[in-house]
């Protein structure tokens, strides 16, 4: 019962209309709310310490503290206006990576829809030749959305699927080629090396490609997200994040320390299982939602 | 992490050696470090608070033994409390009935379908026949996925072409099992958010109409603070019988397991440690406690004393 109450507390609830004294108790309550977002103890302590320094012993209003935290985080999470860097000419190649079950394949369906809506043609590469029926899953999306798909036999070399997909993109003069990869944990050395091989093979077909390497991160992930960002960036040189499953109660706050440590911007967020459930990342909206009751 | 928590505790508490009792004042730094380690392991904060209160109560007034470093003593108390919270351990599947029905549930992508296959393999090795039931009619190619998984472990898969109603599929599958000498039916349900009222209602209806003998919550080992919310909601809807945590073959500390255990109280049955069908292990509370603390081998450290 206590758990529920604490978890469902909005930062606004902590303040009475007449304001509240900033003391240890209040600071701890704020810390609890920060931790709940999954930003981790480091950033949460930093924010708490700053509030303590600026406001301790004073009576404050909700807005003071809220604005303080949100402004700082939104500032940190600012990024380029254009989410995807398109190739100057020829197909733009996007490689999609991430841990098992994060939402890679579904996010590719959403991106496909997003590109097609803008009048782009899309070729998909079913680079997950490992997981059961992964290629069937992507094929169903390709068919529903009207994209071309290149597949390989179960168990075949994912780099060769990537190669053929880029080749097909060139042949069809497609605008975008998106390549799916099998889920893997960042600790699996061989599988991480495989991503590098896929990159190199793609680069042989089109110089500068892949133009984007998107790390798909599950918003329910906790502090392991930091290790994921590091591992995948090291192996595959990620250019941005797609943060999925933000339609649930998880806040996805781990992208805050990830942004701090690796400068990896969040490009899109996933808010459902349907192709239209993708929106561009909005730092202000995201930071407001971090502390909203859900 | 192991080194850092241990070293930090050592320096925080070294002055205590042989100097009387553990008190709130002299444990403060040490407890703060343990608290932070648990947060970094993704244990939900309210659960951390509760846990730390227990630990400090337990440790308070303990004489710091001359033979023992105070940090070892504190870690010993923390470790013991963690094991207590994670237990009692009960990996049995209770398959005594003619037809036992197991139901898997959980958030999207947690590892339900894969775990169904792993369980079927385990059950097959005990000489029993398992039937995997394709009750996820939502995710594209979920049915095909279960067929591939089932084939790879030699388990029969029940699915209905063009089916729309997962409840009917489950009912028909149980009937099929009774008529065909199947011992264990495993229902692979679609992933869903705990706040998706319609889909949670659907899960409750399956539960009511089929009456599975056991409902297992499948939880991703990388889950963060939200684990308390989703686990509580699934437990409210279904009265869970067990928890299986997946993807512990990586470097996630798996602290969400403590959160889930705290809010559901049900036993943790297995952990998933690979994508392959043999990657399911029985749950050991002491190993998990060490993992959550970020101390691979806590026992040897405590016993060293
Ligand atoms: N609620 C919700 N579910 C999502 C979202 N994105 C993906 N999913 C679901 O999460 C599950 C896993 O998604 P996939 O796209 O198969 O994930 P993946 O990363 O390709 O998984 P692997 O290939 O097995 O590693 C599916 O049930 C999806 O429908 C999202 O934004 N919100
Ligand atoms: N490394 C690792 N991967 C796992 C483990 N268990 C499952 N997976 C992977 O996690 C991903 C998702 O697994 P699924 O079994 O499809 O998950 P699910 O819960 O059925 O997903 P939905 O039906 O979409 O909700 C797949 O890539 C699996 O191979 C595990 O213990 N370790
Ligand atoms: Mg996939
Ligand atoms: Mg599934």
> What radius of gyration of chain B results from the CA coordinates?
22 Å
Distance between the termini of chain B: 21 Å
**Bound ligand species:** guanosine-5'-triphosphate, magnesium ion
Give the overall form of chain B.
elongated
SS element count, helices of chain A? 11
Give the structural class of chain B.
Answer: alpha/beta
Summarize the main sheet of chain A: 8 strands, mixed
Total count of strands of chain A: 10
The side-by-side strand order for the widest beta sheet of chain B comes to: 3-2-4-1-5-6-7-8
Query: How much of the sequence of chain B is in beta strands?
Result: 5-15%
Keyword list:
heterodimer, A: 294 residues, eight-stranded mixed beta sheet, elongated, B: 305 residues, alpha/beta, 12 helices, 8 strands, binds guanosine-5'-triphosphate
Describe the structure.
The complex is a heterodimer of chains A (294) and B (305). Chain A is an alpha/beta fold and 294 residues long. Chain A has helices at residues 2-7, 24-36, 41-55, 62-76, 104-117, 134-145, 158-172, 189-205, 224-236, 255-262, 283-290; strands spanning 20-21, 59-60, 92-97, 122-125, 148-150, 176-179, 212-218, 240-244, 266-270, 278-280. In chain A, 46% of the residues lie in helices and 14% in strands. In chain A, the strands form two sheets. Chain A has an eight-stranded mixed sheet with strand order 5-4-6-3-7-8-9-10, with helices on both faces. Chain A starts with a helix and ends with a helix. Mean pLDDT of chain A is 92; it is low at 1-8. With 305 residues, chain B is α/β, with parallel strands linked by helices. Chain B has twelve helices and eight strands. Chain B has an eight-stranded mixed sheet, with helices on both faces. The model of chain B has no long low-confidence stretch (mean pLDDT 91). The interface between A and B is large, with 51 and 54 residues. The complex binds guanosine-5'-triphosphate (GTP) (2 copies) and magnesium ion (2 copies).
């Amino acid at each position: 019962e206590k758990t529920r109450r604490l978890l469902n507390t909005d930062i606004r609830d902590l303040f009475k209309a007449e304001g509240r004294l900033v003391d240890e108790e209040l600071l701890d309550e704020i810390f609890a709310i920060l931790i709940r977002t999954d930003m981790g103890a480091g950033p949460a302590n930093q924010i708490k310490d700053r509030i303590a320094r600026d406001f301790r012993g004073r009576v404050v209003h909700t807005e003071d503290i809220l604005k303080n935290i949100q402004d700082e985080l939104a500032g940190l999470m600012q990024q380029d206006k254009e989410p995807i860097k398109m190739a100057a000419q020829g197909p733009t190649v996007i490689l999609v990576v991430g841990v098992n079950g994060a939402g890679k394949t579904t996010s590719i369906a959403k991106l496909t829809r997003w590109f097609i809506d803008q009048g782009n043609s899309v070729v998909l590469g079913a680079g997950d030749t490992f997981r059961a029926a992964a290629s069937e899953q992507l094929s169903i999306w390709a068919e529903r959305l009207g994209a071309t798909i290149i597949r390989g036999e179960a168990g075949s070399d994912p780099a060769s699927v990537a190669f053929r997909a880029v080749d097909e993109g060139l042949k069809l003069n497609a605008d975008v080629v998106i390549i799916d990869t099998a889920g893997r944990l960042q600790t699996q050395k061989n599988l991480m090396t495989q991503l590098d091989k896929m990159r190199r093979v793609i680069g042989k077909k089109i110089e500068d490609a892949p133009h984007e390497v998107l790390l798909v991160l599950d918003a329910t992930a906790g502090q392991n997200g930091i290790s994921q960002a590091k591992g995948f960036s090291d192996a595959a040189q990620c250019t941005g994040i797609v943060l999925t499953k933000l339609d649930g109660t998880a806040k996805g706050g781990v992208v805050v320390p990830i942004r701090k440590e690796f400068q990896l911007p969040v490009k899109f967020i996933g808010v459902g299982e349907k192709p239209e459930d993708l929106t561009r990342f909005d730092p202000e909206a995201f930071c407001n939602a971090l502390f909203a009751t859900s | 992490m192991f080194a850092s928590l241990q070293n930090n505790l050592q320096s925080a508490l070294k002055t205590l050696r042989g100097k009387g009792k553990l008190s709130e004042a002299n444990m403060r730094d040490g407890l703060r470090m343990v608290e932070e380690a648990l947060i970094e392991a993704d244990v939900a904060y309210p659960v951390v608070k509760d846990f730390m209160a227990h630990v400090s109560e337990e440790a308070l007034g303990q004489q710091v033994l001359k033979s023992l470093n105070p940090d070892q003593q504190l870690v010993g108390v923390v470790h013991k409390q963690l094991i207590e919270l994670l237990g009692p351990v009960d990996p049995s599947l209770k398959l005594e009935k003619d037809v036992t029905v197991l139901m898997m549930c959980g958030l999207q992508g947690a590892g339900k379908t894969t775990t169904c296959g792993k369980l079927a393999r385990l059950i097959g090795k005990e000489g029993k026949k398992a039937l995997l039931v394709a009750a996820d009619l939502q995710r594209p190619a979920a049915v095909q996925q279960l067929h591939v998984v089932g084939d790879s472990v030699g388990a029969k898969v029940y699915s209905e072409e063009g089916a729309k109603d997962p409840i009917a599929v489950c009912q028909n599958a149980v009937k099929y099992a009774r008529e065909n000498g199947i011992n264990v039916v495993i229902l692979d349900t679609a992933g869903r958010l705990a706040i998706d009222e319609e889909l949670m209602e659907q899960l409750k209806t399956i539960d009511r109409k089929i009456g599975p003998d056991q409902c297992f919550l499948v939880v991703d080992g990388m889950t963060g603070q939200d684990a308390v919310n989703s686990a509580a909601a699934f437990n409210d809807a279904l009265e869970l019988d067990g928890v299986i945590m997946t993807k512990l073959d990586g470097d996630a500390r798996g602290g969400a397991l403590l959160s889930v255990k705290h809010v559901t109280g049900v036993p943790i049955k297995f952990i998933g440690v690979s994508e392959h069908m043999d990657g399911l292990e029985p749950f050991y509370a002491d190993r998990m406690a060490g993992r959550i603390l970020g101390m691979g081998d806590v026992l040897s450290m405590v016993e060293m004393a």
